[in-house]
Amino acid sequence: MDSFFPRAEKFNMLEDLNKDRLLAEVIEDNERIGFLAYVSRIGYSGEIENMVAINPEGEVIGSRIIEHNESATLGAQVAQPGFLEQFEGLRRSDLTPTMGANFDLDVITNATLSSIAVAQTVESALELVERQLEGPEFDYFDIPNGWYYGTGSGMWGDVEAQVKIEEGFLHEVNILRHRDTPHVARSAFERLENRVVRAQSTDVDVISGSTMSSRGMLSAVDDALAGERVEVYTTGFEMPDGVYTGRAEGMIGEIVVEITVENNELIDIRLVDHQETTYLADPAFEMLKERVLNEQTTDVDMVSGATMTSRGFLAAIGEAVLSIEDEFVIPVDDGTYTGIGDGYNDQIEIEIEITDGQIADIRVIDHSDTADIAEPAFEDLRELVIDRQTTSVDHVTGATYSSQGFLTGY
Q1: I need a surface site. Which of 41, 123, 221, 231 has the fewest CB within 10 A?
Q2: Are residues 339 and 409 in contact, defined by beta-carbon separation less than 8 angstroms?
């Protein structure tokens, strides 16, 4: 980069994050004269690696494509000076979001994905520099290494997240539980996780079409960073002997496990149910089971290529351990009791029969919710509550308020 900083004397590495985002400051006469950022993004045919030069005020001086696999006749044109010159003089605000109101990307004809990928590398480089110039909302170097847990309000309920801080960097964001529409929210959460880690901040754009879910996740991350360190995945098994059930979200749906504990030792993990892709998930489950049993902790390496499934499996084990702290106790004698909860349209009145200290039956006496939606949900919830002897069960998708009213009627 002599063409951008011909008098540079040395370079100080500032950030080395996930190997696809590097940032160094350029020094001359013991003073900073600019930044060099290396960023890669996926184009049409593979990764496009860009080196971006930025001045001390956070404006692009120039850039150079280091490596790419784009078509020689189309995508390769993004490496030409004529294309790259359009980014000179831009600040991060001009490129957030990419091709925003302050900047119209001049794309290469028939190479739109390649063009956008380069614009994203410049945007990401400017994010790194802005962080150095303005500082993050949280000083991660002041936060001890570890996992932090937080909650935020999503579209249909709480979004629970955990955040990993390591050596002064926000390294990982995981969504543990949520009640938002699964196929919509899951995609938004995955994209936001990448944005937050890249930006080292929750000051990122929400995902179009998933605004409430996005805000819930970002609030959960902020809540986690403002709180105390917790151990969510790093779970030991100093607990009463018994069989415990845990649930957590995987890549596609809920993962349910049963763990068996004897003499403060985990002796078995049984996979009860999951909706993950079988040929990928089953080997991952077996590998994780072996690791957890051998190490007697959930602080084990995830399986490469099945990260979200691994997270869900480990979180389900952790949830099983934590479940003993939230054991549901029936506080009344045997008999029949009536309760009322707020449904979607009006109150839901239920009747509960307690026999031998357990919930024997549940009947909905009266409700005003839409019958063809609410009543199947009531029946599903009735079976779950009786089977598990707890009201700590998931709401029925599409009948959230009816579910809440049914469960709070206890």
Answers
A1: 231
A2: yes
Of the candidates 276, 291, 326, which is a domain's last residue?
326
Inter-CA distances, 372 with 187, 349, 365, Å = 29, 18, 16
Burial class (CB in 10 A: 0-12, 13-18, 19+), 326: exposed
Domain coverage including residue 44: 10-134
DSSP designation for 107 = P
Instruction: Calculate the alpha carbon distances from 236 to 88, 260, 298, 305, 321 in Å.
Output: 53, 13, 7, 26, 8
The candidate with the shortest Cα–Cα distance to 200, out of 278, 285, 134, 121, is 134
Tell me the whole-structure pTM to 2 decimals.
0.42
Gap between the Cα atoms of 337 and 332, Å rounded:
9
Pair (18, 124) in one structural domain: yes
What is the count of structural domains for the chain? 4
Rounded CA-CA distance 265/193 in Å is 34
What is the 8-class DSSP label of residue 38? Answer: E
Cβ atoms within 10 Å, residue 335 = 9
| Whether the bond into 136 is cis, omega within 30 of 0 | no
pLDDT tens-place string over residues 306-324:
767 887 888 888 878 766 5
- The owner of tokens 């549940």 is 362
Give 32 or 190, the one with higher predicted confidence: 32
Can you give the CATH number for the domain in which 247 is found?
3.90.1010.20
Q: What's the pLDDT score for residue 8?
A: 86
More confident residue, 123 or 327: 123
Amino acid at 374: A
- 302, 326, 350 - which closes a domain: 326
| pLDDT at 142 > cutoff 90 | no
Contact 67, 49 (CB under 8 A): yes
User: In the prediction, which pLDDT does 232 show?
Assistant: 44
**Terminal C-alpha separation, the chain:** 68
